[in-house]
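User: structure tokens for D-alanyl-D-alanine carboxypeptidase, serine-type, PBP4 family, please.
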Amino acid sequence: MLKKVGWVAAVGVTVLAVGGVSTFAVVKNAGVGELTYAPASTIAAPTRQLPVANGPATDVAQLRTKLDRLAADPRLGTLTGQVSDASTGEIVWEKASSQPSRPASTTKVLTAAAALHALGPDDRIATEVVAAETGTVVIKAAGDVWMTAEQLDELARQIGSAQRVLIDTSAWTGTDVLQTWNPEDIDAGYIAPMQPAMLYGGRIGAKTGDVPRTHQPALAVAQELALRLDATAGTGTAPQGATVVARVESPPLSQRLEAMMLDSDNVMAEAIGREVAIKRGTGSDFAAAVAATQDCLRELGIDLTGLDLKDNSGLSESNRNTPRLLNQVLLTATQRDQLRPLLAALPVAGGNGTLAVRYQSSPARGWVRAKTGTLTGTSALAGYAVSEQGHVYTFALLSNDSDILPARVALDEFAAGLR
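Assistant: Done. Predicted tokens:
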């Protein structure tokens, strides 16, 4: 089924490299007040690809027995799941794979696939500042929640001077907090009110992590730019046809997807969902983003039976998805160049992102890449694993009605079993 054998092989090399090696520099004390630095160690690029299925053929019946045993772990609560061999597309194991379950942040796999389909990996968001009446400039917020201090410095440099800075948030419509979200999650750092411009995702006092988020992220952008111009700040509407006086762009979608996946950032996922909706002309609110995501998945040939999507991040406890659907998206990503960046964005077991501190003593460390998912009573894992024989297995596992930490351990043991 797969003619991308070379890619499947390269996945193994890439995963191992990310999970298992590092560079370092040797420092030697050569005398009082004098330090000599030896050149930093380097690692040569692989000279050949890891062969696919180079070892003995997999005994599928034996593998199923092994996975059945791992899936019976009581720590997993109500488990649903599916595993496929990426080389053949064969389903090698499943358990209630068509049963809708709470997917938590594995929902971001759907968002990433839809975005790559609709936008492409090089897509960027442009934020422009236009001139209004004398001394006033207006930021036309366009959906960039990745804005940085350096971008604001650049906008200030291009503007030169102003007495007043306003921000226009009309690019996004509807409510900025979904009804099925917990309002406490803003102060807990898991989400911010969805407004189309944010500095570091609306975080307060930090650039990354689950720190409290501001309740007025767009206004905070205007205030930060105003500080650089010694101006006042507020909200307003950009005049039609106004002259553009400054412009900055977001990182490309491929980088933004990686940031979203590695840290499971809900703000980024919701922003990307709206970016897809705007591109497709379906609207710019929560419902439009969800509808656009589903339309893209259908166009990719994904069967959406069992999907009940409320948001693009997985933060809503009302979301429902099936392991069959999730696994289908991941399997499709192994077969289509268009979706390949989705796989490259997944955290590496024991290496980075939400899997950085997991798999530390596991033989699967560096050989599994997966999106995690966590809500009260829900733990999830969806990605792929490279077996010792060189087979690549895609998998989706949804554990509901379980305690988070014990379920995580059991999910990791299941994925390690594929290794």
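User: Anything notable?

Assistant: Confidence is low (pLDDT under 50) at residues 1-38, 40-54.
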